[in-house]
Amino acid sequence: MTDLPVTLPVTLRDVEQAARRIKGAVVHTPCLRSQTLSRIAKADVWVKFENLQFTASFKERGALNTLLQLTPEERTRGVIAMSAGNHAQGVAYHAGRLGIPATIVMPSFTPNVKVKHTRDHGARVVLHGDTLADAGAEARRLAETGRLVFVHPYDDPRIIAGQGTVALEMLQDAPDLDTLVVPIGGGGLIAGCAVAAHGLRPGIKIIGAETIAYSAMRQLLAGEAVTAGGDTVAEGIAVRDIGVLPLKVARALVERVLTVDEVALERAIALLLEVEKTVAEGAGAATLAALLAHPEPFVGRKIGLVLSGGNIDTRLLASILLRGLVRDGRIVRLRLMIGDLPGQLARVAGLIGKAGGNIVEVQHQRLFGGVVAKAAELDVTVETRDRDHVRDLVAALQADGFKVRVLEGADA
Known about the structure:
Layout: H1 12-22, E1 31-33, H2 35-41, E2 44-49, H3 59-67, H4 72-77, E3 79-82, H5 86-98, E4 102-106, H6 112-120, E5 124-127, H7 132-146, E6 149-150, H8 157-173, E7 179-183, H9 188-200, E8 205-211, H10 216-221, H11 244-253, E9 256-260, H12 262-275, H13 282-293, E10 302-307, H14 314-327, E11 331-339, H15 344-354, E12 358-365, E13 375-383, H16 387-399, E14 403-408
Parallel strand pairs: 2-10, 3-4, 3-6, 4-5, 7-8, 7-10, 8-9
Antiparallel strand pairs: 1-2, 11-13, 11-14, 12-13
Helix pairs in contact: 1-3, 1-8, 3-5, 3-8, 5-6, 8-9, 9-11, 12-13, 12-14
């Protein structure tokens, strides 16, 4: 991080003007202290709930700030954008509100819920390519052939200024924050937040959060070659290319960038739902994931986490929650060898029930593997309280003469 002053593409004044421009059309979302997360992190943790925007993402801010600065002639021609979902919805929603025709090019991996919502806002959706870069190239081509105004998701000073209003609101609501943790995709959000926060409170620490699979900002700041790709639940920040303007801001104002793996992201999504009773997409949960995976820089500090969005496919959310229960030992699969005799299944069920377990699923296996003719292999999926409860269940079954092996869940 270099010392200021540095000539940056966006200033605090730009962000403040953006805030006045979009006021009333974008929600001033709550920034609230989390008692439970503060206890877990041994810090003073505040969460900025951008998932409570109408389109469930901060992206509305930059999109609207840009659309409001188009000329009448540009509005008539219409706009086009490339997006993995949230920028798409922000542009589509506010373009529809303002009567501006909108086309959105989305990568083929974009969750169905984001595609549907974008279409519901009145935009024409084009699915193209396997990466955001592929979608961007197609959007540029369509912009040129159709004379459409290209609205970049992050590499535009109007976008950056709009996204910076997130930090303005955070420091209005929690002025003592000394650290902001911001997710990084292409870099527009962290650039805007860094400019706004440093303008209001020089010396505040700005820390970025990326996935290990897509850690382009961390690599660029470290002088490394960028390698990115693969599947992630945080598709909203699965961006291979950092914007030129955000990178310039980050070099000047971002303290460091932390990376998180998929398990950390899944845990953060589940924890936000369980503790804060709020739905976060993978990108939105990345800041909490970074806080929990890298606790040392945060202990004792006053931290603002940007929960950037809540647009997650319901099937994926269900899978993440169930996988979390398995990891925590709250759903476990036990394998027992039982005699192939009447009453054996009832005996097992009785022992599990007496020990407080709830049987979710039962499977018999008599024919395959090493099962002898007068025995059966029994797989029982059980809902439990925690890992200690799993050990109690196993002990109760073993005490009654059953051989038991834990197949998934807690290590008993």
